[in-house]
Design goal:
Number of helices: 18
Mean pLDDT: 96
Strand order of the largest sheet: 5-2-1-6-7-8
Oligomer: single chain
Strand content: 15-25%
Number of strands: 13
């Protein structure tokens, strides 16, 4: 069964993470994605190694793990769009596409005749998605921006990290570039909505996706709580302001998460922990009292949790229907039986030999499932295919373009 977007062609002029993430989502759903890269260099992330993918001989290749993570199911075409002839080819590709994704600085592509207003004159159905740090307008629009900056500016770091007064207190960023990933996800949703609109009306449209907007929106309930109360949210580390106990605890051989959401769960926990009297203690009997007496309860639980191993606690607590979980490193993630069952690792045969290991898409569709058609491409792997088959260029013309450094 062809993918739900198998009728869509995407011209991907984006680099690094947010734009490529959006394009990969569309590619996973069946779209033909043509990724435009700089001749000789390619997407910046091609050089973001080590680590590198292993080739068929088990040696490091030139393909970075970072690039592999967001570029499967795409075709790579090298094109110098800073030169008029490269710009002409890019426009030809845009006229044969339904979607264009780019993440250049505001105004850059207008100089090349590759902006939305220029292209839509000939392709009025084009869906054009621009991904920038601050959006297309406003006092900060010309600025470059990076995930770390937006985690700070957008408020996330003010509520992430250990709470004041505790060891290691202070703001922390999330361990991945979450602003980029989320912007890519929002961009994907917006593009899908625009495709639906196009199929009803024939009209394309412009999508202005900004990393700052995404991060502010992501703070959701914390921001609305502030807007309603006027009280500025603070960092709670691994604890929860309204649920106790709901945090990380040390065990005899590591740490686990204990997430007790109601009084019944707390009572069952205390039985498993051989501390049944604790559940009847007036200071801890109800959630409200546990919140008030958090400072007294948590040290007691910390000592109790140290008496058994991670595995012992998880087996006992799961049997008693007390919510808990391990804190896995990445090796342990892929050793987990549920992760194995869900086949969340996918090994894709790669043109350089060996396999490109990627993480499975979480989109599970019953009738049009995600397919892993193309391994993340080598630089310019699809030049001839796209230029000859899509644009009708001759072998001699392609050779001339290559010799001139256009492709």
């Amino acid at each position: 069964m062809p993918g739900p977007l198998s009728h869509i062609r995407v011209l991907d002029l984006s680099r690094v993470l947010a734009g490529p993430w959006a394009a990969q989502n569309l590619a996973d759903l069946g779209a033909e994605v043509i990724k435009i890269e700089r001749p000789g260099a390619g997407d910046d992330t091609r050089g973001w190694g080590p680590p590198w993918m292993k080739d068929g001989a088990g040696k490091d290749s030139s393909e970075s793990a970072y690039f592999l993570s967001v570029n499967r199911n795409k075709k790579s075409v090298t094109l110098d769009i800073s030169r008029p002839e490269g710009q002409k080819i890019a426009r030809e590709l845009a006229l044969k596409s339904q979607v264009l994704i780019e993440n250049y600085k505001v105004g850059t592509l207008k100089r090349y005749g590759l902006d939305f207003d220029s292209i839509k004159k000939e392709n009025p159905g084009l869906i054009y998605c621009s991904v920038t740090g601050f959006g297309q307008d406003g006092p900060y629009a010309p600025r470059p921006g990076y995930d770390f900056i937006f985690q700070g500016m957008g408020g996330l770091m003010s509520i992430t990290g250990e709470r004041d007064g505790q060891p290691g207190a202070g703001p922390q960023k999330v361990g991945i570039a979450i602003t980029d990933v989320l912007t890519g996800m929002y961009a994907s949703v917006a593009i899908l909505a625009a495709i639906t609109h196009r199929e009803r009306t024939g009209q394309g449209q412009y999508i202005d996706a900004a990393l700052l907007d995404t991060m502010v929106a992501f703070n959701a309930n914390q921001i609305v709580s502030y807007l309603c109360s006027g009280k500025i949210p603070v960092r709670w580390g691994n604890a929860h302001p309204q649920v106790v106990p709901y945090e990380v605890f040390p065990t005899a051989d590591g740490h686990i998460i204990l997430a007790i959401g109601n009084d019944g769960q707390f009572e069952r926990f205390c039985e498993v922990a051989d501390a049944a009297a604790l559940a009847q203690e007036p200071r801890f009997k109800t959630m409200s009292q546990r919140i008030i007496h958090r400072g007294e309860l948590i040290p007691l639980l910390t000592e109790i949790m140290r008496t058994r191993s991670k595995r012992e606690w998880i087996e006992l607590l799961e049997a008693a229907a007390v919510p808990c979980g391990p804190i896995n490193n990445m090796k342990e993630v892929f050793e987990d039986p549920q992760v194995r069952h869900r086949q969340l690792r996918v090994d894709m045969p790669h043109p350089l030999g060996g396999v490109a290991p990627v993480v499975a898409s979480p989109m599970r569709l019953s009738e049009t499932p995600v397919e892993y058609r193309l391994a993340p491409p080598t630089l310019g792997q699809h030049n001839e295919e796209v230029l000859r088959d899509l644009l009708g260029k001759s072998d001699a013309e392609i050779a001339r373009l290559r010799a001139a450094g256009i492709v």
